[in-house]
Write a structure and sequence with these properties.
The chain contains 14 helices and 12 strands. It is of the alpha/beta class. Helix 1 runs parallel beside helix 8.
């Protein structure tokens, strides 16, 4: 089960530098000119989770396998992208394939790095991209509505539902609001996702600050935080330049560097975790002598589907899940202690897997 977060922003805001740090590679070319990233770079990153190390230590696991997330470094967008300006069409198509958006905003001043509009204003930059995405959504909606006319005349129920959702999205977009503000009922979610509206995707604002402001942010990032709070969006402060430097160090050197900079943790860890939370993802664990492993599921996933993340046969032949809550596993010093203290539960097909569950699945072959 892959989850993609697209890294977007105007040219020269630090997207590729951030991507390089995230993937600990120099795969993305970072240069001081627009469109230095043309084909989207894709990288998988481990999701930091201290719980996994503790579980592995108790179980004596030979291997530790964290869960992973995918980040996509997407070409810089410019005003007019919805009409094909710059690399607009390609940019929009790449975003459409992602589950969420990490919007990198320039929150630093540097005369050596050109800003496409000539002034540093992260809120205005955010509005430029949001506007282009909304215009692209309106264009897509208009085309879809025309395409649904014949199906609606034929009494197609799916077409009627899509038409209703599209009209609701159109009304909101015409008010200057993104599609994610449209109230969508649970039974409409499947059709809603199939519309693939760009502004329906959840957004995380990433304030890229200079080294001096990496710990607390600055006036630019404060404005972004206020905007994010107003929208109900997430926001993190990070210095892409620092993170790229840290990514080249070993763990001991990185810890010393962070301490010298007055940082409690790497900004990348906060960014990855914020992306994980943004997508409403949960983590469960399988633990044994061979390996301790984290698995990613969406919030609300039932036990059979969670088992299916490991292997389709587990879901098809699901019998039950033997479940121990993370805190109980730690408090009882492992599976045996949890069993002896009555902390292991047998859960059936209707059980909603909780974040931190330690699971063992029983299934028919």
């Amino acid at each position: 089960m892959g989850f993609k977060t697209g890294i977007v922003g105007l040219p020269n805001v630090g997207k590729s530098t951030l991507f390089n740090a995230l993937t600990k590679t120099a795969a993305a070319q970072a240069a001081n000119f627009p469109f230095c990233t043309i084909e989207p770079n894709v990288g998988e990153v481990s999701v930091p989770d201290a719980r996994l190390d503790k579980l592995a230590a108790i179980a004596g696991s030979a291997k530790i396998i964290p869960t992973r997330m995918t980040f996509v470094d997407i070409a810089g967008l410019v005003k007019g992208a919805s009409k094909g300006e710059g690399l607009g069409n390609q940019f929009l198509a790449n975003i459409r394939e992602c589950d969420a958006i990490a919007h990198v905003l320039r929150c630093f001043e540097d005369d050596d790095i050109t800003h496409v509009s000539g002034t540093i204003d992260p809120v205005e930059d955010a509005e430029v991209i949001e506007t282009e995405l909304m215009l692209a959504d309106l264009d897509s909606i208009e085309k879809r509505l025309v395409g649904l006319v014949r199906k609606i005349k034929g009494g197609d129920r799916d077409a009627l539902e899509q038409n209703d959702l599209l009209l609701r999205a159109k009304a909101v977009l015409e008010e200057g609001k993104p599609a994610r503000t449209v109230p969508v009922a649970e039974d409409e979610q499947k059709q809603w996702k199939m519309l693939q509206l760009l502004t329906a995707k959840k957004i995380l604002y990433v304030c890229n600050v200079d080294e001096e402001n990496a710990a607390k942010g600055n006036a630019f990032s404060e404005r972004v935080a206020a905007m994010a709070a107003e929208q109900g969006a997430a926001c993190v402060v990070i210095s892409a330049a620092i993170e790229e430097e840290i990514s080249q160090l070993d763990s001991e050197e990185a810890a010393m560097f962070l301490e010298e900079m007055g940082l409690q943790e790497a900004g990348l860890d906060r960014l990855i975790l914020a992306g994980h939370e943004l997508l409403e993802l949960k983590t469960y664990f399988t633990v044994g002598p061979k390996e301790a492993r984290a698995w990613t599921i969406r919030k609300g996933t039932l036990a059979p589907a969670a088992a299916g993340v490991i292997h389709g046969d587990f879901e098809r032949g699901f019998i039950r899940g033997e479940t121990i809550a993370y805190d109980d596993f730690i408090a009882c010093n492992g599976e045996l202690g949890a069993k002896e203290n009555g902390k292991m539960r047998a859960e059936g097909k209707t059980y909603e897997v909780q974040d931190g569950d330690v699971l063992h699945f029983l299934f028919n072959t």
